Every structure is written in structure tokens, then in C-alpha cells.
């Protein structure tokens, strides 16, 4: 994953997370193996070709529509925050949160079955769900901290503390 | 030397009880002494995830199903991946489990040993040897405790019990009692009704707490004395019996039920009475009677388990756990109160010295010092100690431990150590300074910041 930061002006900052993950991953190899298995089991018949090509098509469509390649947070002073997700197929979805609706920007920890993940989120007034920034790529804490301090320094006019090291034990 | 300690138990806030408050207060005092403490418990309702309490005490609510009275079912290895992640990211060196009922605590101890961490276990209750559930429980306890660095018990009776149940060497078992915050249980004689003698009972209403005895005793006392009232707090399966007793003997004006009481309301309930009655049938260390004595009540209790060790003789009257003896003891207590033979209001000052969390934390720290010196036994040594557990179970336990070890190796491969990010440390000193500044700022008002 690569992380970039653009300061477009004094009052605007953009943080971009780009996924370095390989376009073809282990699931694709698994699919190929399944397809080969199918060919072996069914022989070179028409139905077999139909099934195999359908499977591959579905997989490609799924990747184009749902595989995330880039996530962005754009912070503008006194205006608000825009969170954007770009998918492999070029589709992108974004959400804008007005400055007056932003209650807080936080970093929190979440528990999954295997991991403890750190995430950055925006608490929006009047909503019971937070907006999670970099929701799909989930960068590491040191990256999150830069975006966190930068966003806070612009939205809440706080001092940028990102150069203060954290204590680990 | 500061340690990174991880407390594990199924029982923690928002569930209320003795183990829960013990965990909280002990952790707080250890943090104040410069250690880093985290607590792992299971999720309570919607309360999953990571939470921070006072002074940066981090609580991990791991999502798990709850089967019976806030205890989670044994998952064997299901808990290991997440436990390993937490332990590695927090750089834990000591795992401290609490309460034998908690399967989570047993699992954590086994996994911690596999990972080569130091382990410690605190037992909060007593068990029998004869009924089926105790036999299963004792086997389980023997399993986890056959390879543990140290065991802490809350009273000498409890130590004796644990040593017998788990076949431990007594040298590896130490006694550290519970404590109370005496300043939170200041007596207040003005709250008492001067015309009648009030007897307070606060406990979970279960069989173990001797509610059947209470059902028998209350009508007899009410018949004997016209100026005695009962205030009964707590909830549980036996509550229905108590209410039936009140209906049957028409004692609606004499017996008051308060239902379940929140931790901060306990003191206000206690100070309404002159006598505190405890009818437990088994008890490792009854913190309830210490709180009652602190709040200025004369205590009448059944003489079971660790109860006789807890209070000085002049604060407590003992009875055998049977109806007649309990009535007799209550007779004596009511007489003493009416003749003003004792001054329960002075108990608080005496107990303040005897039970303090600072002392408990110091002693626990000594245990940690001792176990961090011990040598890690190799896997074969561990297997040998598990093998000695019994003819059949010994082999079964060995298989389980071997599988646990293999699972750990697999986890190390699939989720390498270096990929787990360390968690940043809570800046306790900075937090303390901020609190002090805030305290100074509202010096005129009550200093409610960080009052715990």
C-alpha cells in the first residue's frame, strides 16, 4: 500500500491510499484450479465451456465492481470532509460530510475473529453509524496517525502533533 | 520493574459482583504503581470491542456467546488467535486469570503457557468434592493448574480447598485477601430508624447464599420481636421463595424487598440498618460482611468457609448454618444493639487499616516478582506434568496440549509476530498531570476528576 499526501493549499489537504495488492490473487488461482478440475471431470463439452466461462466472467465482474484500489480523504477547512473509494473497474463512490455535522474524528480499535484492527472514523452528528475512513484498505497505525493529525489540524484548528512520537512498551 | 499484565476473566463490569470489583480495583492500583494492565473479558450485550476505563485501563470485550450466568462456553482453541493477537500487540509478559468458573480464564492460562508467558491464577470461591458439577470443575482446575507458576487465594480456607482440589504444592499458593474502600462506606447513624431495629440482607438470592435459611429465619424473628424490620436487597432464582414467605406470614410492613442494588447504592442501603445478616452456605471470602462492618453494622453470619478469618471477633456473631442457631445468634445481636453494648460506628476506623487495595496490589506485585524469576519448562516437561493428572484424562490432556502447541506454531506461520502492530502505550503520567491541572482549576468545586 502506498500513502500520499497532497497539500493543495493551506486550507486543503488530501490523503490518498493506493492498494499495491496484486490484481491476480490466490483466489483467482483457486478459481483456475476449479475450472481445470471441471474440465477434467466433464470433458470438453459445451456445458463445461459454458460453466467455466460463466465462472470466470463472474469473477472478473466481481473484481471490477468490488475490488478497491484507492481510498481518499479530502479535508477542507470550514467546508468539510470528502471520503472517496475507487474500485478496479473505475467506478467510484464518494461521500461528503459538512463541517457543521462533524462531531469528532477518532482513531479506534476493533476486534475481529483473528485480529485487532485500528481504524479512523468520523463521527457524524445525528447518525448512529460512524463513517470509517480507508474502510477497505485499513492502513497501519503510523499511516493513520498522519491522516488523523492532518485532518484534525484543519477541521478543528488543532496543532499538528504528527511528529510527536508515540510511546510503545 | 514494571510489568505488562493481562487480567483474564469472564466476569467484569457491567456485570456486578465481587470478582468484577476485585479485578477493577486491583488493576487500578497496579496502574498507579507504574505497571501496564489490560483486561480481557467477553462481550456483554452490545458491548464488544475495546474500551478504555479510568487511568487507561484497557478492556477487550471479545465477542463470544454466553451460556450460563455470564460464563462463556469452552471454545478450546477458538479463543487462541485473538488472544495471541492481543497479547502480542500489548507486549504482555504476565497473564493473570481470575475465577474458576470462567472457562475463558482457563483457556487463556493454557494458551499463555504454550506461548511461554508467566501465568498466575486467583481463585475466588470454594467448591465441594462430592457433587457431579464440582467433580468436573475440579478436574478442569487440575488441568489448568498443573502447569501454572503461581496461585493466589483470597483466604486461608480457600487456599486449603484449592490445594486439595488441584493437588498443588502449598508453596506455590499464596493468600491475598480482598479489600474495600473504607471511605466509601462511611457509617451514618442518622439514616437509621431509632424506634426499630433494622436487619439488612444484601446478597444474590441463590441456594449457595443460603436463602432457604433466610426464608425460615425471618418469620421466627418477626414473631418474636415486634420492633424488628428486614430490608432485603439483591435478586436471583430464590427471590420467589422469599416473596412467598412474606405473603404467607403477612409480613408486608416488616419485610422490604429492594430488588437488585447497584454498586454505588449498597452503602446507602447498608446504613439504614443496625445488623447485617449473612446466611451463605459456602464462602471463600465474604466481602459483603466487610462492607457492612465498614458501614457501621453489627454482623451476624454463618460460620462457613473463610468467613471466620475476615473480621475481628467483636464485630461479628457466628452461627452454625442451621435455623435454630441462626435465630439464637440474631437474638444475641438484637439484644446487644438494644442495650448499646457495641459501637458499630467505630468499626470503620479499625477496618480502614486492615483492608486496603494498596496493600493488595503490593502483595500481588510480590507474586509477579516471584514468577518472573522462574524458569520456563520445556514442552516435554509440561506434557509430563499433564500426564500425571490421571490415568485416562492425563493422556487426553496431553493430546490437547500437544494440539495447542501445534496450533500455536501454525498461527506463528500464518500470522507472523512482526505483522502484529504494537499498541501505543497509554500516557499515564501525562494523563495524571492533566487531571491534576483540572483538579486545581476547579478547586472551588468538588474535585470529582479521578476520584476513584
Automatic annotation (TrEMBL), chain A:
Note the superkingdom of the native organism.
Eukaryota
Q: What are the entry keywords?
A: Membrane, Transferase, Transmembrane, Transmembrane helix
Give TM segment ranges.
26-43
Q: Name one GO molecular function term.
A: transferase activity
- Domain (Phosphatidylinositol N-acetylglucosaminyltransferase subunit H conserved) spans 72-135
Its UniProt pathway annotation is: Glycolipid biosynthesis; glycosylphosphatidylinositol-anchor biosynthesis
Q: Does the keyword DNA damage apply?
A: no
InterPro entries, alphabetized: PIG-H, PIGH-H_dom
What does the entry list under GO cellular component? glycosylphosphatidylinositol-N-acetylglucosaminyltransferase (GPI-GnT) complex
Protein's UniProt keywords contain Transmembrane: yes
Any one Pfam family match given in the protein's UniProt record, by short name: PIG-H
Q: Which GO terms describe its biological process?
A: GPI anchor biosynthetic process
Q: Which family does it belong to?
A: Belongs to the PIGH family.
**What is the protein's name according to its record?**
GPI-GlcNAc transferase complex, PIG-H component-domain-containing protein
Q: What is the lineage of its organism?
A: Eukaryota, Fungi, Fungi incertae sedis, Mucoromycota, Mortierellomycotina
TrEMBL record, chain B:
Q: Membrane-crossing residues? A: none
Q: Which pathway, per its entry? A: Glycolipid biosynthesis; glycosylphosphatidylinositol-anchor biosynthesis
Q: Where is the PIGA GPI anchor biosynthesis domain?
A: 42-131
Q: Which domain of life is it from?
A: Eukaryota
| Glycosyl transferase family domain mapped to chain residues | 195-336
Q: Which GO terms describe its cellular component?
A: glycosylphosphatidylinositol-N-acetylglucosaminyltransferase (GPI-GnT) complex
Keyword line: Glycosyltransferase, GPI-anchor biosynthesis, Transferase
Q: Which Pfam families match?
A: Glycos_transf_1, PIGA
Cited function: Catalytic subunit in the complex catalyzing the transfer of N-acetylglucosamine from UDP-N-acetylglucosamine to phosphatidylinositol, the first step of GPI biosynthesis.
In Swiss-Prot or TrEMBL terms, this protein is called: Phosphatidylinositol N-acetylglucosaminyltransferase GPI3 subunit
Amino acid at each position: 500500500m502506498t500513502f500520499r499526501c497532497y497539500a493543495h493549499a493551506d486550507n486543503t489537504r488530501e490523503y490518498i491510499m493506493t492498494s499495491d495488492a496484486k490484481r491476480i490473487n490466490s483466489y483467482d488461482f483457486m478459481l483456475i484450479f476449479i475450472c481445470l478440475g471441471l474440465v477434467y471431470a466433464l470433458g470438453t463439452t459445451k456445458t463445461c465451456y459454458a460453466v467455466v466461462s460463466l465462472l470466470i466472467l463472474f469473477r472478473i465482474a466481481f473484481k471490477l465492481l468490488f475490488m478497491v484500489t484507492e481510498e481518499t480523504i479530502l479535508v477542507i477547512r470550514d467546508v468539510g470532509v470528502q471520503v472517496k473509494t475507487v474500485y478496479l473497474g473505475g467506478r467510484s463512490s464518494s461521500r461528503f460530510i459538512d463541517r457543521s455535522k462533524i462531531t469528532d474524528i477518532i482513531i479506534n480499535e476493533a476486534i475481529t475473529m483473528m485480529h485487532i484492527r485500528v481504524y479512523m472514523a468520523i463521527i457524524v452528528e445525528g447518525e448512529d453509524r460512524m463513517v470509517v475512513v480507508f474502510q477497505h484498505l485499513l492502513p497501519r497505525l503510523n499511516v493513520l496517525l498522519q491522516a488523523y493529525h492532518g485532518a484534525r489540524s484543519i477541521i478543528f484548528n488543532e496543532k499538528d502533533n504528527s511528529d510527536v512520537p508515540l510511546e510503545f512498551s | 520493574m514494571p510489568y505488562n499484565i493481562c487480567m483474564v476473566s469472564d466476569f467484569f463490569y457491567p456485570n456486578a459482583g465481587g470478582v468484577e470489583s476485585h479485578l477493577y480495583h486491583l488493576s487500578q492500583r497496579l496502574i498507579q504503581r507504574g505497571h501496564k494492565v489490560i483486561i480481557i473479558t467477553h462481550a456483554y450485550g452490545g458491548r464488544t470491542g475495546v474500551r478504555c476505563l479510568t487511568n487507561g485501563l484497557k478492556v477487550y470485550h471479545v465477542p463470544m456467546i454466553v451460556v450460563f450466568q455470564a460464563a462463556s462456553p469452552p471454545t478450546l482453541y477458538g479463543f487462541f488467535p485473538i488472544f495471541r493477537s492481543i497479547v502480542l500487540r500489548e507486549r504482555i509478559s504476565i497473564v493473570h486469570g481470575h475465577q474458576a468458573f470462567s472457562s475463558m480464564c482457563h483457556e487463556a492460562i493454557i494458551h499463555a503457557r504454550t506461548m511461554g508467558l508467566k501465568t498466575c491464577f486467583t481463585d475466588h470461591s470454594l467448591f465441594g468434592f462430592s457433587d457431579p458439577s464440582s467433580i468436573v470443575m475440579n478436574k478442569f482446575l487440575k488441568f489448568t493448574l498443573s502447569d501454572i507458576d503461581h496461585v493466589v487465594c483470597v483466604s486461608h480456607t480457600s487456599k486449603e480447598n484449592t490445594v486439595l482440589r488441584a493437588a498443588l504444592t502449598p508453596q506455590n499458593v499464596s493468600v491475598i485477601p480482598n479489600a474495600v474502600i473504607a471511605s466509601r462506606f462511611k457509617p451514618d447513624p442518622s439514616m437509621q430508624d431509632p424506634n426499630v431495629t433494622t436487619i439488612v440482607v444484601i446478597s444474590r438470592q441463590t441456594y449457595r447464599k443460603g436463602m432457604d435459611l433466610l426464608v425460615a429465619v425471618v418469620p421466627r424473628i418477626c414473631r418474636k420481636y415486634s420492633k424488628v424490620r428486614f430490608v432485603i436487597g439483591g435478586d436471583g432464582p430464590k427471590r420467589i421463595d422469599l416473596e412467598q414467605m412474606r405473603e404467607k406470614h403477612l409480613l408486608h410492613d416488616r419485610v422490604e424487598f429492594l430488588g437488585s442494588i447497584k454498586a454505588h447504592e449498597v452503602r446507602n442501603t447498608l446504613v439504614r440498618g443496625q445488623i447485617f445478616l449473612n446466611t451463605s452456605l459456602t464462602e471463600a471470602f465474604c466481602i459483603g460482611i466487610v462492607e457492612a462492618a465498614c458501614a457501621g453494622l453489627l454482623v451476624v453470619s454463618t460460620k462457613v468457609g473463610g468467613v471466620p478469618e475476615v473480621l475481628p471477633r467483636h464485630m461479628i456473631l457466628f452461627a452454625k448454618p442451621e435455623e435454630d442457631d441462626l435465630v439464637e445468634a440474631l437474638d444475641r445481636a438484637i439484644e446487644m444493639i438494644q442495650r448499646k453494648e457495641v459501637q458499630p460506628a467505630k468499626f470503620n476506623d479499625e477496618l480502614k487499616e486492615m483492608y486496603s487495595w494498596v496493600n493488595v496490589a503490593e502483595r500481588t506485585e510480590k507474586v509477579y516478582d516471584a514468577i518472573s524469576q522462574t524458569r520456563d519448562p520445556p514442552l516435554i516437561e509440561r506434557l509430563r506434568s499433564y500426564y500425571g493428572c490421571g490415568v485416562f484424562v492425563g493422556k487426553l490432556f496431553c493430546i490437547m496440549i500437544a494440539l495447542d502447541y501445534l496450533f500455536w506454531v501454525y498461527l506463528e506461520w500464518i500470522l507472523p509476530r512482526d505483522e502484529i502492530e504494537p499498541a501505543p502505550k497509554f500516557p499515564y503520567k501525562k494523563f495524571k498531570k492533566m487531571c491534576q491541572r483540572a483538579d486545581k482549576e476547579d478547586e472551588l468545586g468538588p474535585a470529582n476528576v479521578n476520584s476513584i
